From TrEMBL, chains A, B:
Keywords: Amino-acid biosynthesis, Aromatic amino acid biosynthesis, Lyase, Pyridoxal phosphate, Tryptophan biosynthesis. This is tryptophan synthase. Pfam families: PALP. Residues 65-401 form the Tryptophan synthase beta chain-like PALP domain. Tetramer of two alpha and two beta chains. Its EC number is 4.2.1.20. Its cofactor is pyridoxal 5'-phosphate. Belongs to the TrpB family. Pathway: Amino-acid biosynthesis; L-tryptophan biosynthesis; L-tryptophan from chorismate: step 5/5. It catalyses: (1S,2R)-1-C-(indol-3-yl)glycerol 3-phosphate + L-serine = D-glyceraldehyde 3-phosphate + L-tryptophan + H2O. Gene3D superfamilies: 3.40.50.1100.
Length: 445, 445
């Protein structure tokens, strides 16, 4: 039986990749607001050890839903008429509904050990908020979630799940914080934004023991997510196969990284060669159409600058259903690997992606999240290309979450009212022009 | 690693239980409408073999989501402070969202083999319709689902899932059938009923190859569901434990039967003794407050009479969130076992049940369906009783489905607006007075 990994995989030393250091933001935070990341997470961000043991208390929680299934997609293969072997790794079977719980549990554990009794968090569509709420419940911590008003009203079920888990959900902008009150004063009808929700959560940490839980795209988040790829490797071996191609959808980078990094690391150490393809949305094509540059990681620009593939922090993607792929940039590590040619990237349109999602649901009996459907569509494209070349490939793709709360999106696809959201060159040029000044020693590389 | 059973378990011979024969309905069906159940299913309904091999084609589909997890509920145990070992078997991880797919796949296979290319089905809240739609997709059959108008409008996501799976969803009453047109003529604003949806589906089988797929409460459905209990037995053995108490929620009987029958059968053959508790809703207490009598299985009364515990076919349960527990009767086999004292029954109120559901979600990280929450509450009650007696018991309970589409119900619980729906003695006496005349040889027993 496949076991849960006992250590996370840090592929950075094996890959020999160097990450450009973060730079202080030229914008200064309001006084009294500081980011307090537990030292254990900071060490994980910087470690050169090839593996990091998973604490027993985190392993115990992982056992509630891990190992997750790796499934040979026989029915999908038949429907496609492909000669490839398709496998999917499914992360939607936990209460948060996605892979995000893998790192939320680890982060909650370290915050708890660092003395936190209360975590605050900002959330847009609600996936990260749900994951942190679930993790806090596991460690007996309280949780306050600032949820963007537009999502709060459009996705009431996400709020209900978080409250079931014991979290307090506060609609953002709120009158609880100075930044929220200022927004309400200036724009009484404000529907909020993720950066504002983050700012409110960051401000609302005055009570002793209350800390702000940063997010899901840090390098330590990618580290925690490697349980996905490590399990997949063992499961493939058990099935007597090995991966030729690994495919994951790309938002902040933790889903793709969690699946691909263990395969990339093993290949770098002399293991079987593997091609890793990250799939983004044509509505937010940071790898395929962005720049590798220092940029703000949030719209308020209070956090340190990071060097990453970005469409510019002022990039506003068009309306799209895969909310988790809307982020303007992606993880430093994924960006560096793409820059050096170690991974591939592809971008697809919304309707093509939903077409593959419906085919997947019909054949494999699992309703994918719109984000995850990007990887599914990528897998069908890779399989079709291999078939044209007359080769059979083992293709492993990640299905990062379930689509139970995305029925309105599927409805619009089935009704034929869904539109493709592809951004213009002009829109991308406009937001890239808004990048902060680049340090000379980096831009001259 | 736990494997998928290769055969279903027929516990009837081991238990030595005799089922009263079905009797023809005194009401006659409209001409041209007949129930055509494939001979293989009829044989399974009557077989005396202790096990029935699962066809390879069904096993192949089961592998998409089976074996399902048996989880030790450590966190729930801690929250309850119990000395008991609590285990839950989770059936919500497939696209239909519940255990119903276990029998839908088997039935679709046999209908397919019997020459069907199109199945029609009636559905209320949508669980059975979703399961049959998924099963039809697996075997390349078409599927037409008649969905009660009130559910069609209140639960649009269920319709979307079924259409994603390729089914045609028709709102009932419809103008497609004579019985639907008559209803629309008499009551243009009719919101429909399950019996009407079943009648429409039954009528709409004129095209060659089109058959009506009966339902989930037949004895062969219980047989198919025994994969749940068989897996649980093996998983417990792997964990070095065995069940003292087995608990399942009771609607039509297939969920409870699927979990409990393998344990009961093993005990009857000299295996370890086990107490099996079926949990119903106080809003629909057929075992705890009904009669063991011949009754109609549907409101139209066209199908044969069955001897079962019933509240009377005219019983209308009060509004409740666990739609799957609203049926007025329960399976013949479960009824006979209860009548002879082989199983126990308990009934709980809606708010108590939701209280345990929220505790379960918070501790175990799984959102249960309201139906399944009845078993969870039952497990907490059994554990509390054991603690009072100072004994430690191994308690296995079934979580038959997920609650992702039941957020409005959870919302009302969290808001404090949920009411308990407990029926009066008068209401039960009224519907029991409406039972059909009983055959003398049965009532004189």
């Amino acid at each position: 039986m496949v076991s849960i990994p006992q250590a996370w995989c840090n592929a950075i030393p094996a890959l020999g990749v160097t990450l450009a250091p973060d730079l202080p933001s030229p914008r200064s935070a309001p006084s009294g607001i500081t980011l307090q990341i537990p030292p254990s997470l900071v060490r994980q961000e910087l470690t050169r050890e090839p593996s990091v043991p998973i604490p027993p208390a985190v392993l115990e929680r992982y056992r509630q839903w891990r190992p997750t299934p790796l499934v040979r997609a026989h029915q999908l293969e038949s429907a496609l008429g492909t000669g490839c072997r398709l496998y999917y790794k499914y992360e939607g079977g936990n209460i948060s509904g996605s892979h995000k719980l893998n790192t939320a549990v680890a982060q909650a554990y370290y915050y708890h050990r660092a003395g936190a009794t209360y975590l605050t968090v900002g959330t847009g569509a609600g996936q990260w908020g749900t994951a942190v709420a679930a993790a806090c419940a596991m460690f007996g911590m309280k949780c306050r979630v600032y949820m963007v008003r537009s999502s709060y009203e459009a996705k009431p079920h996400r709020r209900t799940i978080m409250e079931m888990l014991g979290a307090t959900v506060i609609v953002s902008p709120s009158s609880r914080t100075a930044v929220g009150r200022a927004e309400l004063h200036d724009h009484p009808d404000s529907t909020g934004s993720l950066s504002l929700a983050l700012a409110e959560a960051l401000e609302d940490t005055a009570e002793p023991g209350t800390l702000f839980c940063t997010g899901s795209g840090e390098t330590y988040s990618l580290l925690h997510q490697t349980v996905i790829g490590l399990e997949a490797q063992e499961q493939l071996a058990e099935l007597g196969d090995r991966a030729d191609v690994v495919i994951g959808s790309l938002g902040g980078g933790s889903n793709f990284g969690g699946l691909a990094l263990p395969f990339l690391g093993a290949a770098a150490l002399g293991g079987p060669a593997v091609r890793c393809v990250s799939v983004e949305s044509m509505a937010c094509p940071k790898l395929t159409r962005g720049h590798f540059a220092y940029d703000f990681t949030d719209a308020s620009g209070l956090a340190p600058l990071q060097k990453m593939y970005t469409l510019g922090h002022s990039f506003a993607p068009p309306s799209m259903h895969a909310g988790g792929l809307r982020y303007h940039g992606t993880a430093k590590l994924i960006s560096a690997l793409y820059d050096e040619g170690s991974i591939d990237a592809a971008a697809y349109s919304q309707r093509d992606v939903f077409g593959s999602a419906v085919l997947f649901a019909r054949t494999e009996g699992t309703t994918p999240a719109p984000e995850s459907a990007h990887a599914i569509h990528g897998a069908t494209m890779v399989a079709a290309a291999a078939d044209r070349q007359g080769v059979s490939r083992a293709v492993v793709f990640g299905v990062s979450g379930h689509g139970m709360f995305d029925m309105a999106a599927y409805r619009s696809y089935l009704d034929g009212t869904m539109v493709d959201s592809i951004v213009s060159d002009e829109a991308i040029a406009r937001s890239l022009a808004d990048l902060p000044p680049q340090p000379a020693e980096i831009t001259s590389r």
